[in-house]
Specification:
Elements: E1 9-15, H1 21-27, H2 31-37, E2 41-49, H3 58-78, E3 84-90, H4 97-101, E4 105-109, E5 127-132
Parallel strand pairs: 2-3
Antiparallel strand pairs: 1-2, 3-5, 4-5
Amino acid sequence: MVSDQWPVGCALFGSAAWKCAARDAWIGWDRGTRETNRGLLTNNTRFLVLPWVQAPHLASHLLACLARRIRADWQAKYGHPIHALETFVDRSRFRGTCYQAANWVWLGPTQGRTRNDRNHRLSTSVKDVYLYPRPLTTDH
């Protein structure tokens, strides 16, 4: 994301989380369905508006722009569609206001574990799970 002269922020999307109880329950996925369809989601792994950029509602505006654009970009790059965007907001640091303002759906909290916690021994901050269920298309 760049203005005429300076970057205003950055966004990164990648593979969806392997498992997410709140997301899987909301969508209605069992294990087999999740394993088959997880590739139809993408995870907004990073989103940042640089601290020196001061513009009201910019974060939610950028999220809306990304949601409108990503479907076509993803199809062109990977050869298949995506049907939803997900993200995890660290509730100890952020409130998720920009996601809420951009019409992302709050699904609930995580269990405070990481994807590498197969033995249920690691602990991390609880995150709020948000989903944007139908990325808008740029088709007119």
